[in-house]
Each structure stands twice: as structure tokens, then as C-alpha cells.
Amino acid sequence: MMPRWEPDGVGRLQAAAFELFAEQGFERTTVAEISRRAGLTQRTFFNHFADKREVLFGLGSEFQREIVRELVACAGTLPPLDAVVRALQAASDAMFEERRAVVKRRYEIIAANPELQERELRKQAELTDAIAAALRGRGLDPETALLTASAGMLVQQTAVRRWTQPAESRPLRELLSDALHSLRTIAAHATDQWVASPET
Amino acid sequence: MMPRWEPDGVGRLQAAAFELFAEQGFERTTVAEISRRAGLTQRTFFNHFADKREVLFGLGSEFQREIVRELVACAGTLPPLDAVVRALQAASDAMFEERRAVVKRRYEIIAANPELQERELRKQAELTDAIAAALRGRGLDPETALLTASAGMLVQQTAVRRWTQPAESRPLRELLSDALHSLRTIAAHATDQWVASPET
DNA sequence: GACGTTGATTGCACAAACTGAAATCAATGA
DNA sequence: TCATTGATTTCAGTTTGTGCAATCAACGTC
Does residue B95 contact residue B63 with C-beta atoms inside 8 Å? Predict the structure, then answer.
């Protein structure tokens, strides 16, 4: 019946941390403070999160599962990079599109602190690896898989950057298409001869 | 004449840290230990480096200056991405090519520790921004500049990854050309129609 | 040659991030 | 009834990182 503790300790810690980081910044917030607001102890915080940064990155693994799911579900006839961007579009529709405000505030928190930016970059790298693994599962060689996954994530970052800007109001799905188009244009802009190694 | 202290404290700290990280790993090495081996104190370590990770990233800023220098020096007629890869080739020739062994050991140390990987990613992001700034200086709009710089860094990472593998013996310059070619192939592999947004 | 300034280094005291180990105690189920 | 489970707590400890004042050889100036 009556549980021994208030439910959802993890959620309370995440919410408390989000509020405090937004109010007074990441550095000026201590783990003790977060835990106190959530009605828990510092030690409990570290039972749930490996470190102070990690509390902001709960959605990451969900997004990763979603993308990989979409990617393996997607028809194998599509060129790899298109398949990746398709999966990103589907996952973004499912998880980002309706939460623009929250996602944006979260990015502002991260943008305001170098440590958090580092962690964000690491999460993106892990996601890149997961996508590359899925592509290898489709038969791509490891090199191409990783390069394709990286290019896909580059498209994702470009699109999300615009999506979180005040002036922008178009759906993330469209911005992903645009970013892919931009990357293609930049990559195709010249022939290889300019950078060929001299007399190999 | 006789200096008050042994010369090059920074260099001694870097060397001591490099050795200890290689011997026993990053986590199992304390700052006190590094400082002791360098004949200095912990406090002095933190006078020179903002944190424990930073001691491994001294060359980063040099490489950044070198690339930007090459980039602004390079003829403005070249397509942006080609100019970036050209600059990377020049900088790599000047700073990496003859130190393969050291660079490789350094990457092994970084690969063995998540915290160091995060810092490495941050340095790459900073380098990306510096390249983008140089491209804006050439008249590119900010969006394209950042995307081009990111694509260039993707080429760089792909090339360096191969360069540090045991089987590989070709010069980094060539691997950069190859990686650029791979990226172009992947990007060009299909038309945009597949990912166009449905009935906007 | 006296003398003030500079600057790399140090000692000390301290906040905050993390960790390992043992203890608590409602809930659960056999 | 009773052993087990598991989220939470307490506590003691290590390590990272910082602020501040002090040291003292070297250096330039008068």
C-alpha cells in the first residue's frame, strides 16, 4: 500500500536538477542541494547517476534505442545516409517535435557550461557508434558505416541547432532534409583533383 | 645563471603525466603523484593546467593555430571544403607525420578513458569552431561555414583513425584525400527525393 | 651596490565531487 | 512467520580543484 518512500526518486532528482541548473547555473548548484530539493540524500543521487552531469542526460538512451529501431526497420534498399536521416526524422517526430520548449531550455543549460557540453558531445559520439553498428548490421563495411553514421549525426546537429533558434518555426523533419541537402551541396561542390596527393 | 628552479616545469609535468597514464592508466594516477615525479607540488600543477585532463592536450592549440594559418593563407578560389582539407594536410605534415609513435600512444591513453575522450571531443569542437571562423572570414555565411568545418573535421578524424592503426603505413596526407573522397561518395550516393518532407 | 619589482613556486585551509562498506526497514512472497 | 529484497541512508575517506598569502632568486633601475 503505502510505499516506504515517495515514488520516482530518479524523476524527482532529474526535475530538481533541471530547475536548479536553469535558475542558478550548473556550477553554482551542488549535488547536496539537488538531493535536498528532491527529498533525498547526496549518496542516493550517486546511486542513480554516475556523476553530477549525468542527471541531465536521461533521454539520450531512449532516443538512441528509438533511432536504431527505426533504422533496422527501414527498408534496406535505401542508400545508407538516406536511411540514417529517415530514422532521425522518425525518431525526432516521436520524441522532440512536441517538446520544443523543454528541449530548448535543456540546450540552453548545456550551452552555458563547458562540462555539460563535453558530456553532450560524448553522448553524440555514443549515438554515432550505435548508428554505425546498425549500419554494419545492414552489411556496410565498418569504415563506411562509421563515416555514414557521422555524416548523419552532422545533419542531425545542424538541423537541431536551427530548430532551437528563436526565429525558426519549421518542423525538425524539414530542417533535417534541408541540412542533408546542404551537406550534399558542400561535399559535391568540387572534384577530388584539388586535394589529390602529389606524385604518390 | 643558476635558475631558482629546474627549467621547464610545464614540460616535466606533461612528461610525468604521459608516463604515468601510460603505465597505470588515467584514473589510477593522482595529480599528487604526477607532481611528485616532476619534482613539483600539486598546487603548481593546477597553476599550469585547469584540470587533470588538460595536461594531455598541450599540442591542441598549436595545431589549431597552424590550421587556421594555412587556411587563411590558402588561395580563396578553392571550394571551401577543399581548402579546409588542404589546410589539414599541410598542418598534419608539419606536426603529425614524423611523430606517429607518440601520437599513437597518446590516442591509446585517451581511448582507454571516457573522461579523456570527452575532453578530446571538446578540443575537436573548438577546432571546428576556429575553422568555421576562418571560413566566415573568407565570406562564407555562418551556417555553411560551420557545416563545412564540421565536414572537414570529419575527414580529419576518419583519416587519423586509419593512420593510427597498426596495418596502416601510408602518410596522413593521402589518408586525408581518401577520407574526403569517401565522404563525397557517401554524400552523393543518392538524390534528395527520398528524404523530402511529405506534403509540406 | 642597494633596492623595489617580478613571477614561478609553495603551504594551508577549504568546498565539492565521488566511493566503499555497513546498516536500515517497509514490502514482498514463500 | 520469516527470510529476502532493494531503495535509501549514514559515515568515513580519497581526490579534485580553488583562494590567498608567503617565499625568494633573478632582474632592472638608480
Answer: yes
Q: With an 8 Å Cβ cutoff, are A147 and B186 in contact?
A: yes
Answer whether residue B197 is part of any domain.
no
One domain for residues A153 and A141:
yes
- Are B64 and B96 in a shared domain? yes
CA distance A94 to A106: 18
Q: Which of residues 68-127 of B touch strand C (CB under 7 A)?
A: none
Contacts of A28 (CB under 8 A, 6+ apart): none
What CATH number corresponds to the domain at position B50?
A: 1.10.10.60
Number of domains in chain B: 2
The residue among B186, B189, B191, B192 with the most chain A CBs within 10 A of its CB, best to mutate, is B186
Q: What domain range includes position A67?
A: 57-184
Q: Which residues 4-43 of B interface with strand C at a CB distance below 7 A? A: 4-5, 9-10, 35, 39-41, 43
Q: Which of A121, A150, A162 sits opposite B118 (nearest CB)?
A: A121
Given a contact cutoff of 8 angstroms between Cβ atoms, the answer to whether A124 and A130 are in contact is: no
pLDDT in tens, chain A (200 residues): 567 889 999 999 999 999 999 999 999 999 999 999 999 999 999 999 999 999 999 988 889 999 999 999 987 889 999 999 999 999 998 999 999 999 999 999 999 999 999 999 999 999 999 999 999 999 999 999 999 999 999 999 999 999 999 999 999 999 999 999 999 999 997 644 444 444 43
Kindly state the average pLDDT of the residues B59-77: 90
Number of A:B CB contacts under 8 A?
A: 134
Q: How far is CA A112 from CA A24, A107, A181, B18, B110, in A?
A: 11, 9, 30, 31, 25
